[in-house]
Amino acid sequence: MPRRIRRHIASLVTVAAGAAGAVLLVSGIAAAHVSVTGDVIPGKPATLEFRVPSELADASTIRVAVIVPPELEVTDVPAVEGWTGKKIAGPADEGTQLLWTAKPGYDIPPKESGTFTVKVGPVPDRYSLDFPSEQTYSNGTIAAWNQPATGSEDPEFPLPVLTVNPEADPPARQATGSSPSAATDGAETAPAPTVAATPTPSAAAEEAGSSLGIVVGIGAAAAVGGAVLLQRRRSRSVSP
């Protein structure tokens, strides 16, 4: 499963022309994580697309939050049918937060994905740009897509990355817990801070199963050891 978004990637799905910024629902999930794509040229404006798949079998996506890096200006957030979009300006060193919330009946159902469009100002000439994101499901599960690739293995919740100039020096990747943080814009509030990726129910179940297996194994070993020790004591007690 690819984790890095390369420049000039062809669109996975061809969609008939429609209203700008509309959520595009696509059956099937080619990559089960939030990703960002765009045909970008350093120093030029660009249109970015955030693809958000609903990967849980029993819940739909009702909220999406994205942090745009501070060196990139958001010039327009096109209206999305059935969703309320909001641009929240943060501190100068934290960038802008984009927040989309689904209206009743417009959430992204399981096994489908939505696409959100954002227009940005001149793209800086650098290797890549990071977009920490949060995805909220109808059952309360929050997936924080904020883990950078630090080696050959792909992280469980990869950070959405847009490659701008492959010839530039790549950044030194370090583990981070950055995610959309709380911000206030009038009476509305952005999602609460998330410092680490939240496992999906299936991942949590697998982790719990592994832990249970370890506990059972330790318990069985202890029981066998105890039986052996007791047998030795009995043998000694009946010896002449």
Chart the SSEs and their pairings.
Layout: E1 26-27, E2 35-37, E3 46-53, E4 61-68, E5 74-76, E6 83-89, E7 96-102, E8 112-120, E9 128-130, E10 133-137, E11 142-145, E12 161-163, E13 184-185, E14 188-189, H1 201-238
Antiparallel strand pairs: 1-8, 2-3, 3-8, 4-7, 4-10, 5-8, 6-7, 9-12, 10-11, 13-14
Précis, in short:
The chain is about 15% helix and about 30% strand.
Helical proportion?
10-25%
What's the total number of strands?
Answer: 14
Structural class: alpha+beta
Q: Could you say how many structural domains there are in total?
A: 2
Main sheet summary: 5 strands, antiparallel
CATH class of the largest domain: Mainly Beta
- Give the CATH H-level superfamily of the largest domain: Uncharacterised protein YcnI-like PF07987, DUF1775
- Shape by Cα distribution: globular
Query: How far apart, in Å, are the first and last alpha carbons?
Result: 70 Å
Radius of gyration: 24 Å
Question: Strand content of the residues, in percent?
Answer: 25-35%
Mean pLDDT: 72
User: Helix tally?
Assistant: 1
Organism: Streptomyces toyocaensis
Keywords: Membrane, Transmembrane, Transmembrane helix
Domain YncI copper-binding: 33-164
Region (Disordered): 145-207
